[in-house]
């Protein structure tokens, strides 16, 4: 019995104290019976408290922006330490539907990464791009030191993480620019539909591409599979096979996978690496957001396939 309990019971007469002890014991037994009935063990409260503490540790506010940055293609060229530095400087920004985060023509002041909700990028009042969870905006103005090319409004209640210009430039810009140049060089070798993209769209695409390597003999996509990526050949040679017959060769600057994304169809052919190859790719959402405006050019180019 605890010192506090002994002190409490000392204030009663012998009979009253004994009676109270009996009642407390009965109540304790009833509580234990209920806990067992509910599937709880005596250790459960302590375990739950430990679980809450662990969840609290996991939900460190700065772990949220770090997780976002780790999945964000813009920051893919950064190492973990750099991403942690950025995450430590980011501020949570919650806005209601219709609120403006960036105004066209203003000086670029920050990069935003969307954690929840949808934002719309508007140029001259027209929506040119939609940003969902994991998407970002404001980076081009900080990379190129130019005024904001578009306004950005919350389409619905939105939570984003804001990274200030000074931190972005100091920690991230050089690595992002170097990676962007490598990707832009590969895109610049393209003479197809991508060549018709404006500078802004090409910058968006260069920031969103990811890299992939394919060993000689490996299939990159297979005929009949669901198409989920758009590929650009950075280096190497690949063969396109239709119903077992090779119909086309792909080399640096050429692309494939666009028709499945445009038409919502299965892959119409198999593409395999003839030599070790380096590829750039973007997923369905990035393809539709950035390359959707030149869909007709892709279709026209497809008619030239042999």
TrEMBL record:
Region called Disordered, residue ranges: 38-63
Cellular compartments per GO CC: cAMP-dependent protein kinase complex; cytosol
Domain Cyclic nucleotide-binding: 74-171, 193-306
InterPro entries from the UniProt entry: cAMP-dep_PK_reg_su-like, cNMP-bd_CS, cNMP-bd_dom, cNMP-bd_dom_sf, RmlC-like_jellyroll
Superkingdom of origin organism: Eukaryota
PROSITE patterns: CNMP_BINDING_1, CNMP_BINDING_3
Protein name as annotated: Cyclic nucleotide-binding domain-containing protein
UniProt source species: Zooxanthella nutricula
